Amino acid sequence: MPDFVKPLPGWDSTNMNIKLEKPAPTGAGTPSLWQRISRKIAEHTAGTTFAVVNPADGSEIAKVADLGASHARIAVDAAAPAQAAWAALSAKDRSSILRRWFDLIVAHELELGEILTREQGKPLAEARREVTFGANYVEWFAEEAKRAYGDVIPTALPTQRQIVVKQPVGIVGAITPWNFPSGMITRKAAPALAAGCAVILKPSEETPLSALALSCLADEAGIPAGVFQVITSSTAEDVAGVLTSDPRVRKISFTGSTRVGKLLMRQAADTVKRLSLELGGNAPFIVFDDADLDKAVACAVAAKFRNAGQTCVSANRFLVHTSIKEAFLEKFVAAVDGLRVSEGLDPSCDIGPMINATAKQKTIALVEDALARGAKRCTAQHTDRTGCFLDPVILSDVTVDMSIANTEIFGPVAPVIEFNTDEEAVQLANDTPYGLAAYFWTRDMSRAWSVSERLEAGMIGLNGNAISSAETPFGGIKESGLGREGSQYGLDDYLDIKYIAMGGI
Questions:
Q1: Domain 283-468 belongs to what topology?
Q2: Which of 119, 139, 144, 278 is flagged as catalytic?
Q3: I want to staple 217 with a disulfide (CB 3.0 to 4.6 A). Which of 104, 319, 356, 466 is the partner?
């Protein structure tokens, strides 16, 4: 299958004080996960490659094959017969194979976390949590594979029976982002595979190594050739063009920007494909006057600064009641000024580098624009932040006409906006074309119900920020996307409903 990687001699460089070529925990003499990734290329002819870069220091980690439209067509050709055979397996057999994949991911959690940190930059502890988070989806859907129940519909005709069965959609084209290069793959692939679909995965060109590592473990688990393929490419539009236009591909699942999501919708329309789209966000974090400030601040730090603010459900706007604004800011600033910015393999790291220089400059531009228009910086600023590193920022006196209040920041910046009434808070929160996530803090149960029902978002975090897990439905409304990932609803997104009317009974 067309997934390959070429390691660089410096992969085990001592400047990171880490050595990835450890024996895997499956037995003495077992090749490390990186060694298995490296061996994949030996089975294929070398071609054009592109570099995978460590955002912490700009060094090349590896070179991977730069594949294009022709490789995508080969992948679809391979997936078509493989999908039919995979769908024909019993749900129990698919479940068993997925369970083995889960076990292997968990067994290689440290190696997978190290690879993820090297290519994406997030703290190693955070990367390891992402690996186990993603593994949970494989375990969940290994179980759900056996629960794609149909129905028998009562009929008015004694000679007829009416039956509903659920069948796999078919080949799925999955396109995943760089901010969660492991978790976003399993969240798409696990339900698709459980349902009986084949998956052709295009990971971000910034972070392809985690995808290749997962594919090695999928092979070892017994997922047949052609059922789970990885296409590494620096020209996503070429690969996406094949996946959206080929009628044999019946579904596209994409996580990324709203702009690209809209483009994929247009391209997929000609063959009327099913779509799952997790797109942009502009999540409000509302702190009402009766909130537990210590708990709200702790969750605010996690909701904003995890992965350097580079998550689709990051709190993007902090709406704080006027009466508690100063008290909240005092605690929030103290907590954020205590965060340590460093490379992700540093055990003391709280915030790693941003993914690239372009992302850093975009974030800086939003901060500078806000400051020029009257916002105030509340947090400390260091002068020695080189490369892709950026200090976390809290801005007060932000107004709704500033760009930072209306843009998905995707960086470690927390703009604080005041409000006076519940109605104003809800209006400010909903004043966006996006509707992915929203968070709010209150001890008033009447307000909890009322605000939850009025907020225009697919997911609500009430007095907490842990809104994503394998058993819950993840997804948005408005321009934040279509469909759900995780939970029983996530399996349904990869199943077609077939109604059978049986006569002559």
A1: Aldehyde Dehydrogenase; Chain A, domain 2 (3.40.309)
A2: 278
A3: 104
